[in-house]
Amino acid sequence: MAEIRHNRMLIIQDHAGRENEGDLFIPAAYATPEHVNFMITYGKGLVCAPITYKRALQLKLPLMVSEDKNEEYTKCNFTISVDARDGIGSGISAFDRAQTIKALSNPTSQATDFVRPGHIFPLIAKEGLLVKRTGHTEAAIHLALIAKLDPSGVICEIIGDDGLMVRGKDLERFALTHDIKIITIETLVRNS
Description:
Layout: H1 2-5, E1 10-13, E2 22-27, H2 33-43, E3 48-51, H3 53-58, E4 82-84, H4 94-105, E5 114-124, H5 136-146, E6 153-157, H6 168-178, E7 181-184, H7 185-190
Parallel strand pairs: 1-7, 3-5
Antiparallel strand pairs: 1-2, 2-6, 4-5
């Protein structure tokens, strides 16, 4: 929580038997263009915005693929991608993506505040969070909630210079190089 309160990113690492990957994370309420730019530059994965089912309904964000047709191996619930309607350019810059993320985390935002498709990929967390699914999406919402922030976040997978996912000791080296703390989903589940 100290890292989050100081507006610092974390790495969320899942179980070795699942994806065994690390995602950069910051609560959506704290996301800045600098955070998004770091994710794009050093994380290199897809910048996604975990949200709750309630928020997805509020913003009229349907699933990209219905749950019964979801063939993705971890069953990630991607919605239609979005951009903020106002205050951005093409939607792809770090500044534009941060603006969209801020709009997603704003509890007063409405469906009409977004255009579809866009450059941010909301993910709907399972109700019950880590009790129901031990994914990065649910961990991001869990962390935002225990920090007493809006239940939304930003995550981005960490891909190495060789194009492969960064795991194990390489993930630890990445964390040390960039001075980012790692928290495991297993730890979050154990301390819930």
